[in-house]
Automatic annotation (TrEMBL), chains A, B:
Signal peptide: none annotated. Keywords: Membrane, Transmembrane, Transmembrane helix. The chain crosses the membrane at residues 21-41, 107-126. This is ThiJ/PfpI family protein. CDD domains: GATase1_PfpI_2. Residues 19-177 form the DJ-1/PfpI domain. It holds the Pfam family DJ-1_PfpI. GO terms for biological process: regulation of DNA-templated transcription. InterPro entries: Class_I_gatase-like (IPR029062), DJ-1/PfpI (IPR002818), INH-QAR (IPR052158).
Amino acid sequence: MFAESHGPQMSQQTKKLQVGILVCPGFAIVDTIGIHSVFGFTPDAEVHLLWKDKGMIEAIPRFPVHATTTFSESPRDFDVLCVGACPDEILRDEETLAFLKDRGSRAGYLVGVCSGSLILGAAGLLEGYRATSNFHVMDLLPHFGAIPTRQNVVIDRNRYTSGPATGGFDCGLRVLEKLRGEEAAKISELSMEYIAQPPFGTGSPELAGPELTRKALQLFAHFTEGTRRTVRELPSRRAS
Amino acid sequence: MFAESHGPQMSQQTKKLQVGILVCPGFAIVDTIGIHSVFGFTPDAEVHLLWKDKGMIEAIPRFPVHATTTFSESPRDFDVLCVGACPDEILRDEETLAFLKDRGSRAGYLVGVCSGSLILGAAGLLEGYRATSNFHVMDLLPHFGAIPTRQNVVIDRNRYTSGPATGGFDCGLRVLEKLRGEEAAKISELSMEYIAQPPFGTGSPELAGPELTRKALQLFAHFTEGTRRTVRELPSRRAS
């Protein structure tokens, strides 16, 4: 899909949905792309890529990108606010956490993809909520008072959390259904031809078995070590 | 997933895989992200985001990005070369088509996601190959001598084509299996927790039915009109 302009024309009757997605140096671009695509192709929706400034950001894996909207330019009220995996620095970044806490406390729906749920947790937004993350770090959720729940998508009230990558499509489509109805969400799923066919059936530790899981954990240990260390050092926000 | 550096360290024994992904003004970022993620997180692989220059590019939906590698800096031999949906201008852009034809004729594997397959076709790389695209434009494939085949992923020799979005994950994992073996591909699928759960089961015209399909075609007509017009105006490359 593509266009010379900015997508389907806005009808005058509908209020534009405001959708915010956090981007930051070292963020995992794949985690954001499901929400970005679902709402970016939805008529009457405005997607903001949010960061402190609009300088160049290197995503992980390497993809040089820019925010479209700074924290200070950001809308006050989001219909959807989404956070994917970011480096562990974000878990200690008071400016970002304060921003997320403020916007998140008023947002219609909060989406945490992959270890983005830990960031929502660090911003105090998951206390008492059931939530998921990736299998490498989901044991850290209780540090923030969240209740780890091993599912691809976990919905608790207006908090939607998921595993990485396609978890963002799954959350995005479900949130779109709430905001714009089932037909709009079905058309979005159709337009993306979202009939993913994972070739190996090894998309979870339960499916892949302990040997492959051990190797995957090892291969990505350098990605997750910092997060584990940082969360352990954070003052606990566990609800008593 | 994330890291402060550029992913798993390179072993000295293995030749780095060279992976190229075309980016251009108005490209559909979602189509590229599967390949980008599969190979970006693969040890000993180098992913090049290819365009004429490194200035800012607006993806569709809006996402300001940059190429990492210009055509003139590009490796000569790619293990994988991938093209997703781009605006119809690309179908007439002789510089880009010449670049793709040259690199594509030598690449180990060619991947066309969504209407990226039409661009491979315009570069003369699909003559006599079975291929797919998105349902809006796949009837245009014969213009380039390709044989339209209605499947999520179509593999014909070293040409891998797919529908949009998650089609890139499906192709990427299958190509990774060829290049690095089944275990590496299984671990990649696991690391992305690629167990997509489309909530509505409407990810194809066959699943969604004629009424929703008509609405989706209508909603995206302004995206596809230009492509239809441009392809009709191109000199036919149909074999014989």
